[in-house]
Write a structure and sequence with these properties.
The protein is of the alpha/beta class. It folds into 2 domains: about 100 residues, no CATH class; about 270 residues, TIM Barrel. It has 15 helices and 13 strands. The strands form 3 sheets. An 8-stranded parallel β-sheet has the order 11-10-9-8-7-6-13-12. Strands 1-3-2 form a 3-stranded antiparallel β-sheet. Strands 4-5 form a two-stranded antiparallel ribbon. The two termini are about 30 Å apart. The relative contact order is 0.09.
């Protein structure tokens, strides 16, 4: 009799190995064999392409290469798809050790083999190992945010909501004083600061959880940091104000770098991609490099793929399915999916009708590698996260 096993976690595989009496010394071998990966290498020379192909085949793996690579071509560069499990990658990496011209590829394979450690976030003097799902509650001090349930304009209501979020299990609170919904026009930084004065100084004193400021302006970020914010959530990905990285570095706070195409006013005017995940990956890589060169510690960086920010409907679904690709950065992944249009538009659901869809998407995102969920409904999101963490982690 033969039956198919679905062993999604390391623990499940270990249980099956123990059940049939396998020697514990061989456990690591079978764990690595169970972890199948598809890697994309870019800008390989013709020689590198063929050497990697031959080495992969010898070790039981395989490499998909363009038809043109078989024709040779001096100076040409190629992209390839590498299919292997971790056991096979270990073998390939060792075989490439004595070939200097393959050293960059060998280094990349070493990095893949090392990606087992959980990301660590330095927040103030604390070092947080991201071994569970964290919840970030959203507070908007605006009148035009896309979801009416997140708009708060009086101090009494803001304080009440902040207390409730903390009691319901929020790990962070994210405060925004400028709407970034599709089509929104920017507001003056003075007005943004005036709105924050209404609540931020008091909120920083009354809460026991870190506060994030949702802004793309350095003066606003500086004001918020001076009044208690320890995370800067820049939806422009450091693209709006080039001084933002320096401000973050100077104050030793955390930085959220989000992918966006365009600006809130223009981002949904016919966005398009030839390679969505490739573009997001390259964008984040460049912005992380820029931030670290500006003095921001890599351990203080959080990344965000930017659901709904310059994305078509199906782009959001593709990010959801392939989110785990971004774990190669070894940084916490924040997602802002809560009640957004890609959850409700296909079914003509308004933002007020998107709670169930939001929670369903949340479960998929956690499974796909999300670390921090930016949500409007803290209690419900926390309960789902506790359950999915128990199942998956």
């Amino acid at each position: 009799m033969v039956r198919k096993l679905i062993l999604g976690s390391r623990d499940s595989i270990l249980q099956e190995l123990a059940r049939i009496g396998v020697d514990k010394k061989s456990y690591p071998i079978f764990i690595n064999k169970s972890d199948h990966l598809i890697l994309k290498f870019e800008n390989l020379s013709c020689a590198q392409t063929h050497i990697l192909k031959q080495t992969a085949l010898i070790c039981g793996a395989d490499l998909a290469i363009p038809k043109t690579a078989y024709q040779g071509g001096k100076g040409k560069k190629f992209s390839v798809l590498f299919f292997a499990n971790k056991r096979e990658i270990e073998k390939i990496e060792k075989k490439l050790d004595d070939q200097p011209w393959m050293e960059p590829i060998r280094q990349e394979l070493q990095n893949i083999l090392a990606q087992r450690h959980l990301p660590v976030l330095e927040l103030g003097r604390k070092k947080i190992t991201i071994d569970r799902t964290y919840i970030m509650g959203v507070i908007n001090i605006t009148l035009d945010s896309f979801y009416g349930g997140s708009r708060y304009t009086t101090r009494a209501v803001l304080e009440k909501v902040a207390r409730e979020m903390e009691e319901e299990g929020a790990d962070f609170i994210d405060i925004g004083a400028e709407s970034t919904r599709p089509g929104a026009c920017p507001i003056d930084e003075k007005e943004e600061i005036e709105r924050l004065k209404l609540i931020l100084p008091k909120l920083a004193k009354m809460t026991h959880i870190p506060i994030s400021i949702d802004t793309r302006k350095t003066r606003v970020a500086s004001f918020a940091i001076d009044h208690g914010a320890t995370i800067v959530n820049d939806i422009s990905g450091l693209g709006f104000d080039k001084k933002m990285a320096k401000v973050v570095a100077k104050n030793n706070v955390c930085l959220v770098i989000m992918h966006i195409k365009g600006s809130p006013k223009t981002m949904q005017l016919n966005p398009s991609y030839d390679d969505l995940m490739g573009e997001i990956h390259n964008f984040l890589e460049k912005k992380i490099d820029f931030a670290t060169q500006s003095g921001v510690k890599r351990e203080r960086i959080i990344i965000d793929p930017g659901f709904g920010f310059g994305k078509r409907l199906d782009d959001n679904y593709e990010i959801m399915r392939r989110l785990n690709e971004l774990t190669t950065f070894k940084r916490p992944i924040l997602v802002g999916h809560s009640r957004k249009s890609f959850i409700g538009v296909p079914f003509n659901f308004t933002p007020e009708q998107r709670l169930e869809g939001t929670l369903g998407v949340e479960a998929l995102l956690i499974k796909s590698g999300a670390s921090i969920l930016r949500v409007h409904d803290v209690l419900e999101a926390k309960r789902v996260a506790l359950l999915i963490d128990r199942i998956e982690r």
